[in-house]
Write a structure and sequence with these properties.
mainly alpha; about 80 residues
Length: about 80
């Protein structure tokens, strides 16, 4: 009885994997809606909502450790708009 209440971690992992792979119409519809957004990517967060930690403010010149720098660098690299 104690084994039923506290199953093996590997068995729990396998059960979660199997349950997560079940296809339903609701999951398929959600995937279609999400895929239609922004060419299949997650919508980009506006740079104005990314906190600047280097003191450059709203400019596009930030230090490499600043979270805004990382977003700007990614967008420039991918050819995405910097807005």
């Amino acid at each position: 009885m104690s084994q039923m209440n506290n199953p093996d971690p590997d068995a729990r992992k396998e059960a979660a994997r199997l349950l997560g792979s079940i296809r339903s119409e609701k999951k398929a519809e959600a995937a279609r809606r999400n895929g239609a957004l922004s060419n299949g990517r997650r919508p980009l967060k506006p740079l104005s909502e990314v906190r600047c930690t280097c003191g450059a403010g709203d400019s596009l010149e930030h230090k490499g450790t600043c979270p805004r720098y990382k977003r700007i660098f990614y967008r420039r690299q991918k050819g995405l708009p910097l807005t």
